[in-house]
Amino acid sequence: MKFSQTSRNELGMPLVGFGTYQLSGEQAEVCVRDALLAGFRHIDSAEGYQNEEGTGRGIKAAGVAREELFITTKVFPGYKPWGSEEKSYRDTIETLKRQLRELQLEYVDLYLIHAPFSQLRLDQWSACMELKKSGLTKHIGVANYNENRIQEILDAGLDKPESNQIEFHPLCAQVEITGFMKQHSIAPVAYSSLSPLSSWRVEEGQGGEVLAETKKEAQGVISDIANKLGVTDAKLLLRWVVQHGYCVLTKSSKPERIRDNLDIFNFEIPESSMRLMDKLDQNQAIAWAANGLNPMEIAAPLK
Ligand SMILES: NC(=O)c1ccc[n+]([C@@H]2O[C@H](COP(=O)([O-])OP(=O)(O)OC[C@H]3O[C@@H](n4cnc5c(N)ncnc54)[C@H](OP(=O)(O)O)[C@@H]3O)[C@@H](O)[C@H]2O)c1
Prior knowledge:
The protein is an alpha/beta fold. 37% of the residues lie in helices and 13% in strands. The chain has helices spanning 25-38, 52-62, 89-103, 121-133, 147-155, 175-183, 216-229, 233-243, 255-262, 271-278; strands spanning 16-19, 42-44, 70-75, 108-113, 137-143, 163-167, 187-191, 247-250. An 8-stranded parallel barrel has the order 1-2-3-4-5-6-7-8, surrounded by 6 helices. The protein is globular. It binds NADP nicotinamide-adenine-dinucleotide phosphate (NAP). Residues 19-21, 44, 114, 143-144, 165, 191-195, 197, 199-201, 234, 249-254, 257, 260-261, 287 line the site of NADP nicotinamide-adenine-dinucleotide phosphate (NAP).
């Protein structure tokens, strides 16, 4: 078996990370602690999730040595249509300092710009470079950046993002951007890889009902393959990402699912089934649909 629970990518990031979106502060505290006690060593946080104090308490409560952990967080860049001020260079620096206080950490392992929403995104990126230089983050990257947005950074002569966090699952296989990232050695991290499931974001206000109809056909194929392999549909989807060479993030508020979602290293998806799952691609982004946008498509080119 090529991968194990202790495998890490080229940035030292464990292949399966625990996500914290849509957890309240209290839930984040309990679930992050439980995830770490279950064996997760990679946590994905964000300014925009508004639960970093809880996440910090959960990390502390688990008592795992800091050097074993890989902690990612993100700056929300600002987005005018939502009434959110765009962050300057200085704002970006100050934001990570505040997040570190909330997380009770001296540094994070990876700091990301959450989306390319702002016209100030090159200033924000320069601030990330400075934060890396000063040791407040070990690595820097972006999320929801397509080829053009990454190319802007390269064209400006700034450091290459080390990682790009994007939606990735059989209905949204992101063929162009993943090819580009491979060419430029930018580490891929997948989010919302469980979004093809009918159990994805089903609680009130979580938004999972949007696009629920478009997933139905794929769910049949996914269940058939999972049944043949004797695993749950969720494990199959997470394993599919890892076999594509990606790190994968997964969130649950339920202790049993938290444990299960890390348990994907004792089976392998045969090549023929991988290809059947690959064929489900519709280039259909789902994760942000309830917000009425696709973050990889809305950013205007820089003036
Ligand atoms: N950069 C970005 O723009 C971006 C966007 C989205 C997500 N992310 C990150 O990626 C993480 C993962 O994405 P996600 O939050 O969409 O999580 P996900 O793991 O893809 O899906 C979570 C949903 O699936 C359910 N679920 C979890 N495990 C399950 C299982 N074993 N069987 C059946 N249902 C299960 C959860 O319900 P319960 O909680 O009720 O178990 C929840 O509704 C986020 O938490 C966040 O850290 C980043």
